Amino acid sequence: MPDRNLFESIEGLPGTGKSTVTPLLAEARQAVLVPTVPPLYQPLRRELDLYKNADARMCLFLSALFTATDQIRRYLDAGIPVVVESYFARCLTTHSVFGAQLKVALPEGLPQPVTYQLVCEPRERLKRLAERDKPMTRWDVLAEQQTDQLTDAYRRFPVRRIDTTAATPDDVVRSILSLNAAEVDHAIH
Q1: What is the CB neighbour count within 10 angstroms for residue 152?
Q2: pLDDT greater than 80 at residue 173
Q3: Rounded distance between C-alpha atoms, residue 135 and residue 114, angstroms
Q4: What H or E segment, with its residue span, contains residue 74?
Q5: The whole model's pTM is what?
Q6: Count of CB atoms within 10 A of residue 108's CB?
Q7: What are the pLDDT digits (tens) for 18-55?
């Protein structure tokens, strides 16, 4: 896949570096950073996070993702690279682990990103979470209680795992860029 048409997604548990690495990768790629929960969804997300209905929450996130996908398609069709923090893999894995009962078959033709799953040693990840200035929702607490199941659920998706434990955000971006360079070199030879 040529760099100018690249679509990449950063996935992973909270505290692995997604929010820090994603804009850095977008900058390195000279890509557009598309929010997969667009701003118009944020007030509803905050309200819905107060409730316990995993199916309702999943529907909100699916709607947000399909809305973002329209924007992603427009950029990709124009030859503009796109980077996102989380895509359908995170929505489907987290909500299935949270107990959602909906069975979702994604439509064919959705843009398919190259997906990187950031992973981090548990003690370091928890240290990073403790340093955040962000309140935890009941969903965040539930995710912390089920980190192993969430990590396992990602195995249904083709992801490239990147360990962020002892790496700076710039190191992680360099790892992603070098991974892509090695794949392109391998495809040419």
Answers
A1: 12
A2: yes
A3: 30
A4: helix 54-77
A5: 0.88
A6: 5
A7: 999 999 999 999 999 999 999 999 999 999 989 999 99
Give the 3-state secondary structure of residue 123: helix
Distance, first Cα to last Cα, the chain: 15
Query: What order of strands is seen across the sheet that includes strand 32-33?
Result: 32-33, 82-85, 7-12, 114-119, 160-163
User: Distances from the Cα of 18 to the Cαs of 21, 129, 173, 177, in angstroms?
Assistant: 5, 12, 11, 16
List, as one string, the DSSP characters of 134-185.
Answer: SPPPHHHHHHHHTHHHHHHHGGGS--EEEE-TT--HHHHHHHHHHHHHHHHH
Question: For the segment 66-107, what is each residue's pLDDT rounded down to a tens digit?
Answer: 999 999 999 999 999 999 999 999 999 999 999 999 999 999
Rounded Cα gap, residues 111 and 97, in angstroms: 24
Average pLDDT, the chain: 90
